[in-house]
Amino acid sequence: MKGLSEIRRSRKYNQQKVAFDLNISRASLSHYERGIREPSLDLLVRMSEYFGVSIYYLITGRERVPGENKDFTLPQTKKNK
Fold first, then answer.
1. Which residues, 6 or more positions from 4, have their beta carbon under 8 angstroms from its beta carbon?
2. How many helices (H) and strands (E) does the chain have?
3. Range of the domain at 50
4. What's the chain's average pLDDT?
5. Exposed (0-12), middle (13-18) or buried (19+): which is 77, by Cβ within 10 Å?
6. Residue 75 forms part of a structural domain
7. Domain holding 52: CATH number?
8. What integer pLDDT is reported at residue 69 of this predicted model?
9. Can you tell me the distance from the alpha carbon of 1 to that of 3, in angstroms, rounded to the nearest whole number?
10. Which helix (H) or strand (E) holds 13?
């Protein structure tokens, strides 16, 4: 969760403040920032709303560029016969 720690630091918030505001423990927030644990989808949405950034940004540390993955296709799966 590269973007989570970046956005928190850019806002000059400490982990205790963010954890309190999101109603989670400071240890949990630290684990999310270091990639030890992954937050639930519900918590990702709350974090996104709290910081005013996309979930994509929280995870990658960058915003998506329109058309960035326009040629992306899902890999074909083998069908059992």
1. 32, 33, 47, 58
2. 5, 0
3. 2-60
4. 88
5. exposed
6. no
7. 1.10.260.40
8. 61
9. 6
10. none
